Amino acid sequence: MTTVALGPKDFKSELKPIWCPGCGDFGVLQALYRALSGIGRAPHEIAFVSGIGCSSRIPGYTTAYGFNTVHGRALPIAQGIKLARPELLVLVAGGDGDGFSIGGGHVAHAVRRNFDLTYLVMDNQIYGLTKGQLSPTSPHGLETATSPYGSLEDPVNPLAYVLSYGAGFVAQGTPADMPGLAKIVEEAIRYPGFAFVNIQSPCVTYGQEVQQMKVHKATMKTLASVGHDQTDRIAAMRLAQDYGKALYTGVFYRNPEPPPTFEALVRERQTAQGERPAREKILDRYLQRAT
Amino acid sequence: MTTVALGPKDFKSELKPIWCPGCGDFGVLQALYRALSGIGRAPHEIAFVSGIGCSSRIPGYTTAYGFNTVHGRALPIAQGIKLARPELLVLVAGGDGDGFSIGGGHVAHAVRRNFDLTYLVMDNQIYGLTKGQLSPTSPHGLETATSPYGSLEDPVNPLAYVLSYGAGFVAQGTPADMPGLAKIVEEAIRYPGFAFVNIQSPCVTYGQEVQQMKVHKATMKTLASVGHDQTDRIAAMRLAQDYGKALYTGVFYRNPEPPPTFEALVRERQTAQGERPAREKILDRYLQRAT
Amino acid sequence: MRAWIEIGKETGAEEQMAEDLIIGMAGSGGDGIVSAGEALVSAAASEGFHAMMTKSFGSQIRGGESSCRVRLSIRRLHNPGGVLDVAVALNWEDFLRFGAELPVGGDTVVIYEEATGVAPHEIPLPGVLPREVFAVPIDALAKEAMGTDKAKTSVVLGLLAGWFDIAPAGILRGMAKRWGKKGPEVLSGNEKAFALGQRYAAEHPLAVARKLSRPPDERVGKQLLLDGNDMCAAAAIFAGCEVFGGYPITPSTEVMQFLTREIWKYGGAVLQAEDEIASIGVAVGASYAGKKAMTATSGPGMSLKTEILGLASLAELPLVLLNVQRGGPSTGSPTKPEQSDLFQAAFSAHGDVLRPILAPTTVADTFRVTVEAFNLAEHYQTPVIILSDQEIAQRKETVEPIEFSRFDVLSRREPAGAELEHYRRFLLTESGISPISHPGMVGGNYLAAGIEHNEHGDPTVSGKMHALMNEKRFRKLAPLERRHDLFEIVGPADAPLGLVSWGSNAGVCREAMELARARGLQVKLLVPTLIYPVAREVYEGFFASVEAGLVVEQSHQGQLYRILRMYVDVPRGVTSLARSGANPFQPAEVAAKLAELALGLQVRHGRQAQE
Amino acid sequence: MRAWIEIGKETGAEEQMAEDLIIGMAGSGGDGIVSAGEALVSAAASEGFHAMMTKSFGSQIRGGESSCRVRLSIRRLHNPGGVLDVAVALNWEDFLRFGAELPVGGDTVVIYEEATGVAPHEIPLPGVLPREVFAVPIDALAKEAMGTDKAKTSVVLGLLAGWFDIAPAGILRGMAKRWGKKGPEVLSGNEKAFALGQRYAAEHPLAVARKLSRPPDERVGKQLLLDGNDMCAAAAIFAGCEVFGGYPITPSTEVMQFLTREIWKYGGAVLQAEDEIASIGVAVGASYAGKKAMTATSGPGMSLKTEILGLASLAELPLVLLNVQRGGPSTGSPTKPEQSDLFQAAFSAHGDVLRPILAPTTVADTFRVTVEAFNLAEHYQTPVIILSDQEIAQRKETVEPIEFSRFDVLSRREPAGAELEHYRRFLLTESGISPISHPGMVGGNYLAAGIEHNEHGDPTVSGKMHALMNEKRFRKLAPLERRHDLFEIVGPADAPLGLVSWGSNAGVCREAMELARARGLQVKLLVPTLIYPVAREVYEGFFASVEAGLVVEQSHQGQLYRILRMYVDVPRGVTSLARSGANPFQPAEVAAKLAELALGLQVRHGRQAQE
Ligand SMILES: Cc1ncc(C[n+]2csc(CCOP(=O)(O)OP(=O)(O)O)c2C)c(N)n1
Ligand SMILES: Cc1ncc(C[n+]2csc(CCOP(=O)(O)OP(=O)(O)O)c2C)c(N)n1
Ligand code: SF4
Ligand code: SF4
Ligand SMILES: [Mg+2]
Ligand SMILES: [Mg+2]
Is B63 helix (H, G, I), strand (E, B) or coil? Predict the structure, then answer.
């Protein structure tokens, strides 16, 4: 692991984002560049994994190793990377649909395994890339391309879910406060274990009126300003219930005593097995000795 | 909907269970027969859906319409049945692996849609049918066929998860108290909305010592006995944290004001669309009139 | 088939009447080039033209390049055509991005934005210099009409109406409808832009004027105009579909979007599930419950649906699954058409499985094919896959009004009377079809399962029973191979040249065949609606006279060709003409290949070609 | 090949020496019939016999019926054999449940539990009355020895050792190992039971005594004994696999179970994921990170892995995927073998995809095939599927010690030096193989994606680039078709009769061929290790002399036969001999079909058969 002095621009690739002008994901990208420049890991030491969606395009806009995988499967693939090369900094990103609809089944398991991953969800409460269908975080009643008369179901609550899965780091941000978001992302990366940041990232083309940058600017409230204690999981749970009603930014929960990561336990197990035998010994136990 | 007087035996099919002698699932089956006889719906009005696993064999042992589907997909299939025929009583059952590992991604969505389904998970903290591998509810450190040196991850907490998904009915039982379990299952069926019962059903062949019937009998504690208020979601959440430590039985949470079910909203929408047009009208809007 | 009819000689005027006109336009997302195409095509449709429009985009959601291709004709259209008659470029960069999708030839009339600063003789088209090139101040005219560049679309429409006499009245009616809502200023601004465009055309006549022939009056106001996805959804409702389980994916999402607007009226419901596995699960559940059910997706979703698709086959549940093919593998090219999911459709589930695959060839055809899919699914208690593709699904096409009475709608065979006394769900009947009950039916109770079962549905490990049930599941579909009505053969029965094509490419081959026959080649064409199982008899009959030929399709591997070989002794002279998606075949190209084959035959036979 | 050598005539004693002995045993789960088989086979293996054992169970986890088939020989074994030489039934109900899996003939020595109360001439075997039938008080002897029926297994072993002289010393050694741990009483009780069994046999001699010939001394103590799943896992470690992503499923779970015991020692790791999608995701992630990775499953899991499998193809990531085939479709028959997932292996992913498929034919062969799979995956940067089946995976077999030095272990070609200056991950090289970097490598940074890409890995919607990349992905695998070493041809090159078979059925065909040739038929056999892509050249060479023949496999559709037809002009006389799983082919049956074919040829040629 090399530590180098890098600026935000060192993480910017030559690929031009194809997001709609004004899309919140631009701000997320800026925040990420900034956060990474604070971390000090070189781009080649970073693996940046995503699913499919507008938001999932983000790895390509960085100079890191990127893997724009398939819809909903970024987390398992990221875990494979981390298992293979624990020395890498592994980031995961995607949309609300990618993460909590099709990919929803992987979140709990990524959390409970506790790999040192940072998972950024760009939550715009809509399916952007496919042009405006219902997303799992779309509020009840929302009219979209697939709910012309309003949605019939209650939304997912990403914050509450991930907290109840036992994650060690759960935060929320918005590109409406880019520097604040950059700080949150940096903290998430620094947390030694699974870290989740829900980013309220407006979709200017298909998103709701109330989910636009202007509204965010007017309504967002830092958790610090409401006197929240980051180490209080119960209080975090309570505040998380306001998802969709209030826009809190900052860290909901940070485990003050991070438990060992999965990769640390793996390393321990490998070491416990003692010296590496020759691969040719692998069949020895099957020898049918006559004595 | 016919209401008829039926006894437990009316729900018992001719198929002989192939569970290991002493398996907890026998008790679950008995409890179910009993609960159903209290409900009064005829077997042909019941659709009983399961995934794959020892526990998922259960529909075949009843006289209801059964659908032993594929691993982890019982909930979506059950929702399809309920959507097609809301008048049916639809039961869903399966194992801890079926429900919270491979099927884990479907649970949150079934809950938030709030179909009137009853979901029974026979949680034995192990993969029974495949002969003793790690399950998502296996405790950290458990040695199994796939974790000979102990598991490295924290277990899933079915009770806490389903509560945080916002379910209207969450309970737990054990066949060690069969009549108690029957009552809980009956209540779950009667709840008008998504109801979840986690059943601690011992696997005598691959299960842990501490998860056997005898131990259950000695350690189980009814929620009533600890003075729990079924309508208190926060208290339920707190008690649910003891999953894996204490064996509470009874109803953790029952929404005193059940919201409308998905099928009710669908019916409402269908009605709101007014009189049924002739199917031949379906293309009218595409006519390119010259005026 | 295209033809410029030279009428100048007779009238003395330098003018051609066109029976068929292909217009390609490209610009960047905000330019409204696709709206222009839509206005054009619906105006033309209302005036009785046969019309077809395809769109193509870059990968941006907004902005980025976009294009459309509009084909208008007084004759029935089978495909969006090859080389453009008219090309409109709002800027060259975007236009060029579409490459082979917008081919320009020497006869193409090229119209482009003057503000690009490119001189007419320097337009950046590789290898061609069209004879008629117009640099038009489109932007300036729009600003003149409206004060902003918002009316560019209307200027373009005016130019096209002016030069080619395309449905000006219809266009104006469409503009009134579209812009009227936005207030009188907007409408009049656009009308003015349209007029400026027309005037510009009048003032800059073509060297050889080309006017579009008019369709007969009785066609006016009688056509439908829609795309394949809407047609499929409409047909599903007509066929009695009551439950749709879906998950958005390009280019199939519009099917769900249509149904979620309409299905409630018919007592049905749509559920947008959390993923494709759940969405097929919902459909299978509904089918088990006795209702007609459907799911729709594209490649990646197909891959996810594989497991439950196998369950539906084993549990013998009716189900219609639409795959709107796009470029693969993996995420591939989501906005481009390809025909490369055929192998998957036929073979994706594990174990020995057979399920029918149908493919529509046009938007109109999609109605028939969808109704047939439901009928087969219900009658044979099997999943049926409809393999559409991005082109058919998203292209708009004029369609004659549908005679609904011509379509039978079938339902599954339920058990009754004595059959319910000792009901055996999987009764080994001679036909292989066993009466199917559903929850709610007294006496029909049974266990459905993915585990191999005996006649009652009870699980079994017996190899003998497994063999019997496999045999039953294949036997019941055997009659399909004799469904000659699911194949269309065009051309002389004894032709030595044969073409086979399917899906959207069949339309290209229809035109190719007409071209070839016009040149005197003896060709026939086979277009299967039933793609799989392979109807041996039909193909053997078709190939009997064929000495050389082509199986034409849009996939790298030539998947239909390979699948035919599995079951049919394809004549050696019949080869695969196949290439990857978004590199469309042109009728002329296929016709040229046929001519080559004919030459080869002559050489082989050592005698002169037949007339 | 089996043969009773009649030596009675020479020695004067009524005795036969057997070179090969097939014993089938069945009982209910608690009876320990499978442990008996295991004891037998490991005793025999340690004494130098070639040995093979298959197990078969009902669907119960515990209790229910269970059976095993043990084959011992002084010659190399290729399959578990057909009709039993010895049948042991602890009760008839359970025995009969196995039907064709335990076929009894007139020469079979039948041993059964006397307490069943069935008279020897009334044993319930349909259509056969074996000449030698013994009702033995097995239960009573066990109780006599131990006081309980726990020692039934040892009685059975005693009987077999007594009657057939099978490795008594080895059995006793095994018993000491197994029971010694449980204390001296348990051991001596079992020893006594064994002795009682032997004595019973001595007191009730066979009408024609049959003793098993002994293998040469130099084989003693030199063999390995293991099953295909363990062999595959061991080979994966040898080949350098460092990450395994898995999810339990019968009959593949033992691969994960082996690795999770062993892999840590070699610096690797196993992750049991939440489902099959995640497990292949983990493997693909690890491969992207530059490590050799693997996943294993059976049919239903394969179906779920489809989407990410396609991603690995498009992103050109090495990956080994083991499918231990069981009876399909859907959940099917999880504990039974079948070869019906070949279509799926070849064609499941959407889009145009090509990935190599390899199939082992025996446990020993599984080593070579697995190492080859890793080599192909790494060299060609592609997923490779190993198609094993329940029989190979779970049968135990003696294997000669492996000469590890004979195996090359390949790794992927990484970029270096100048290649990293303007690194292009998907460089369009002549071979189609582009150097591949991984995170952590300076200068190798690129974007991997499921979206179609250009040479740099950047997303593209260009149809032209898509065609180039498809072409590259197929081109790189073209050399595979010339890998003659991945095909075994046995028999005379000019034989007019040809057999093709694969996987576990290849062993049946080997023996069938020997039988047929012993009867003077001119037959050759082709066994492919590389199942797909189809190596046209190899098959055309093989078929050149073939006028009639069979492609033998265990699937309803005859999937290999169909796939061969796709790419090869299979001679008309070569047909498919195929049937559903758990209805195993017998060597004699295949040989008889060959004889029929030979007759057909003679008729056709209108002349006498060749010698
Ligand atoms: C398996 C699969 N299903 C569906 C799709 C189509 N699809 C692409 S992105 C997407 C959802 C996008 O929504 P989200 O994840 O919220 O990302 P956003 O575009 O809003 O950033 C869908 C359904 C796909 N590519 N693959
Ligand atoms: C797609 C798929 N993956 C894996 C399996 C194998 N399998 C069958 S049951 C099972 C898990 C059983 O555990 P659980 O759900 O807890 O049920 P139990 O047997 O313990 O009652 C597994 C992994 C399968 N049948 N299908
Ligand atoms: S559609 Fe929405 S999420 Fe996608 S790029 Fe545009 S604004 Fe952003
Ligand atoms: S293995 Fe366990 S869960 Fe399965 S039947 Fe036996 S005791 Fe029950
Ligand atoms: Mg979104
Ligand atoms: Mg379990």
Answer: coil
**Around Cβ B38, how many Cβ atoms within 10 Å?**
15
Under 8 Å between Cβ of C436 and C415: yes
Q: Which of A15, A66, A76 sits opposite D273 (nearest CB)?
A: A76
Sequence-ordered alpha helix ranges (H) in C133-221? 138-146, 152-164, 168-180, 184-203
> What are the Cα distances from residue C350, in Å, to A170, B126, B129, C325?
41, 27, 21, 21
- Residue among B22, B239, B173, B203 nearest B95 (CA): B203
Collect all residues with Cβ–Cβ distance below 8 Å to C563 and sequence separation of at least 6: C342, C343, C346, C531, C532, C534, D566
Q: What superfamily would CATH give domain B8-258?
A: Thiamin diphosphate (ThDP)-binding fold, Pyr/PP domains (3.40.50.970)
Asked whether the whole model's pTM tops 0.90, one would answer yes
Q: Which atom of ligand 1 is nearest to the CA of A201?
A: 21
Closest Cα of chain B to A37: distance in Å? Answer: 32
What is the DSSP track for D209-235?
Answer: EEEEPPPPGGGTT--EEEEHHHHHHHH
Q: What is the distance, to the nearest Å, from the Cα of residue D556 to the centroid of all Cα atoms in its chain? A: 19
- Binary contact (C330, D347; C-beta < 8 A): no
Structure tokens at D18: 């057997």
Amino acid at the residue A47: A
Q: Check C248 against A146: CB less than 8 A apart.
A: yes
Of C591, C592, C600, whose CA–CA distance to C572 is shortest? C600
How far apart are alpha carbons A114 and D166 in whole angstroms?
Answer: 54
Sheet containing C319-325, strands listed edge to edge, beginning at the edge strand earlier in sequence: C269-272, C243-246, C293-297, C319-325, C383-389, C357-358, C530-532
B43 touches chain A (CB under 8 A): no
Confidence of residue D58 (pLDDT cuts 50, 70, 90): confident
Enumerate the residues of chain A whose CB falls inside 8 A of the CB of residue D442: 42, 44
User: What's the pLDDT tens digit per position in D339-397?
Assistant: 999 999 999 999 999 999 999 999 999 999 999 999 999 999 999 999 999 999 999 99
CA distances from D134 to C541, D91, D109, D120, D206 (A): 62, 13, 8, 7, 9
Q: How far is the CA of C61 from the centre of ligand 3 (A)?
A: 7
Tell me which residues of chain C have a C-beta less than 8 Å from any C-beta of chain A. 58-64, 246-250, 253, 256-257, 260-261, 264, 270, 272, 274-276, 300, 330-331
A259-286 per-position pLDDT tens digit: 999 999 999 999 999 899 999 999 999 9
Partner residue opposite B290 with nearest CB, options C46, C234, C268: C46
D534, D502 contact by CB (below 8 A): no
The C-alpha atoms of residue D472 and residue D352 are separated, in whole angstroms, by 12
Return the partners of chain C (3 or more C-beta pairs < 8 Å): A, B, D
**Burial class of C423 by CB neighbour count within 10 A (0 to 12, 13 to 18, 19+):** buried
The beta-carbon neighbor of B286 closest among C225, C238, C308 is C225
Q: Residues of B78-106 as b/e, b for ≥16 C-beta within 10 angstroms? A: bbbbbbbbbebbbbbbbbbbbbbbbbbbb
Distance, in Å, from the CA atom of B88 to the CA atom of B66, rounded to the nearest integer, reads 12
Q: How far does B77 lie from chain C, in Å, by closest CA? A: 4
Q: D12 in helix, strand or coil?
A: coil
Structure-token match 């010592």, residue found: B209
User: Does the distance separating the beta carbons of A20 and C270 come in below 8 Å?
Assistant: no
Question: Which spans in B85-176 are helix H?
Answer: 96-97, 104-113, 158-164
C179 neighbors C172 (Cβ within 8 angstroms) = no
- Domains of chain C as residue ranges with CATH: 5-222 (3.40.920.10), 226-406 (3.40.50.970), 483-610 (3.40.50.920)
Which candidate, C65, C55, C57, C56, places its Cα nearest to that of C28? C65
Domain spans in chain A, listed from the N-terminal domain onward: 8-258, 260-291
- ipTM given for this complex: 0.97
Kind plus residue range of the DSSP H or E element containing D339: none
